[in-house]
Amino acid sequence: MLLRGVHVVLVAAVLMAACSAPAQTGGTQSQPGAQNPTAAAPASTGSGGNLVFFSTQFSPVEEQAKMQNVILKDAPVQSDFIPSDIGPFNDRMNSEQKTGKVTVSLIGGLHGDLDPFVKGGYLEDLSALAQKLNDRGFAKAFMDLARMGSTDKTYYIPWMQATYVLAINKKALQYLPQGADVNALTYQQLSDWGAAIQKATGKRMLGFPAGPMGLMHRFFQGYLYPSYTGSTGVVGFKSPEAATMWTDFKTMWQYVNPQSTNYAFMQEPLASEEVWIAWDHVARLINVANDRPNDFILVPAPAGPKGRGFMPVLAGFAIPKGAPNRAGAEQLIDYLTQPQQQTNTALQLAFFPVTNVQLPAEQSAGVKLESDAVQKQSASNDALVSLLPIGLGAKGGDFNNVFLDTFQRIVLKNEDLQTVLSSEATTLQGIMNDSGAACWAPDPPSNGPCQVK
Question: 0.85 exceeded by the pTM?
Answer without folding.
Answer: no
